[in-house]
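Chapter summary example.
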Amino acid sequence: MKKKVTYTILLGILLATTMVYWNHFSNTFHFDDSHTIVNNIYIRSLKHIPRFFVDGTTFSTLPQNQSYRPIVSLTLAIDYWLAGGYFPFWFQLDDFIVFLLQGILLFYFFIQLFNLVQPNTKRNIWLAAFGVAWYLLHPANAETINYIIARSDLQSTMFVVLGFVVYQYWPKFRKNYLYLIPILIGSLAKPTAVMFAPIFFFYLLYFEYNLNLQQLFQSKHRQQVILLIKKIIPVFIVCGIMYVFIDKMTPPSWIPGGTSTLQYLITQPYIIAHYFGIYFLPIGLSADTDWGLLPGITDPRFIAGILFVVALLVVAIITSFNKKWQPISFGIFWFFLALIPTSSIFPLAEVLNYHRIFFPYIGLMISVVWTIGLFLEPLKIWFEKNALPYKTSIAIAALLLLGVYAYATINRNKVWHTEESLWKNVTENSPNNGRGLMNYGLTQMNKGDYATAEKYFIRALQLLPNYHALQINLAIINDIKGDTTAAVTYFKRALALGPAYPESWFFYGRYLMNHQHYTVAIPYLQKSLELSPAQIDARLLLMRAYSETGQWSALKNLALETQKLIPDNASVKEYLIMAEAQKNGLDMQESLIDAQPDANKYIDLSLGYYQKGDYTGCIRAAEKALKIKPNFAEAYNNIGSSYIALKEYKKAIPALEKAIELKPDFTIAKNNLQFALRALKN
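The structure predicted for these 682 residues follows.
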């Protein structure tokens, strides 16, 4: 087939993929994007790039999620710089370009792989094209492409494929193992890339040394096996060293999230069977599933899972014996090996997650597509024998299949559009996921629909009674309702359940600040910063607490420290000025207004003093407003309100009467006057 036709086929696949994903570019940040991207100050400046490679804590603001993935942080910082802020389009565009690049690499990888088995350029090109299109349009892979921080799976997988392509098309790089450079880079995005070593072993075994699994142990093939081992050992050493290096660079605060290694392990065979099924029938996808650990090996799901895994391994072994079938065996082993980091003895918080199959599905795609290719050979004979249009029929069938998957992907893109649409879908597809219910409740709380939010929080509480984040949100919703007693109870329970999580301390500290308990709030905010030094909201709130309590030295030190992280932040600069002048925010405002007196600004300042509880300051600011504007009814009302708060009702009455005289329809002043008169009588 001419190169021009090949390029046209590939271009058509890329254009089709772009059209299918056209509705995803405006999809927002989700879930772990919050602590790795949105609240991560380190990606906001390119000057932090060198630090990404020496400090794993820069990956996330949450200690438990701080892993060593410098390539991911590097690309996020570049995206932020290009976008000039948190505009999801640029982040989504970056991921999509890498996705298309991976598609191109897969196309040429598949062609070369298939040609090693059956040199048939034309057929193999079409098989490769179909396989790549199916992979790119698969809705399960949309879970990775739409989830920005899941670029770790995308990038590591792309570099693994690049390693294979470099090995296939540039033989001169083999002697010095230069094809491992992409693997090293990919492992810095996610360590799953080191699984290249065992996958590459099977590639060499089948397609370079032309051996099968049985021949691997036969003495007559010993010389070939020795050559194979000599070639693969350096690959395993390099990948092993890289894995150890990444493990050493991962902060000790990182935790995988799982509880029982044994239960996680016995659950995974059934999960693997589910992943296999989702490949063919991708329904019920969920960004956060409600699947749990299996109770034991007597569970029917464990038995079914084990039987499936054994059956698939038997297929892999049998198909290895025939050269013509070996791509099927290779793809199955790729599928299993790529799943080892997430479906074996390493217990993760979720027993399954659909972005984990992005890498393994390449192997499954190889097996399935090659099987289809073998099936088409006798089918072609049958079509020709019966004088039926073979090519037309196969093309229509392929396009129909791809069309169905493309349609499903378009709909998954819609699901990922907003936080509300995503978590609504989770509550529908994973109704027993307490975290999903809570997160959907959060979207409603952010809209101001507190009744619906609380309903979902209560539903979540039945499933997750000991989840610290849920306790925090219940505290916040009760504070909004005015039930401070319940709010404090929930906040303290969150602290008891999640003392290692900075948000437990931060949100209680914020609550105390909102209720003007500044001194009490300080140790909670300090603890939050101790756990997560890069948490900017905690820094700004603690600076405010220091300013409100007159702790000028502490304020200055914290402001200077924070300025190193965010040098252009206006609030930090303002706090530095306060520390130097030893005046808090309102006092500073008053000084500035005094320099250029303005009645309306004095009234705003007066209200600020009142909300802070500084009623003397409120009266003073209002009196300054009256010097400029003697008939300012709002100023008299503020004076009267402050005297009521100070319980000096006799002083309040004339001020309020004057406000009503100046503004007869002043309802607030009338209500305040009635209150003062009643209080004076009592």
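To summarize the output: Residues 547 and 584 are 5 Å apart (CA to CA).
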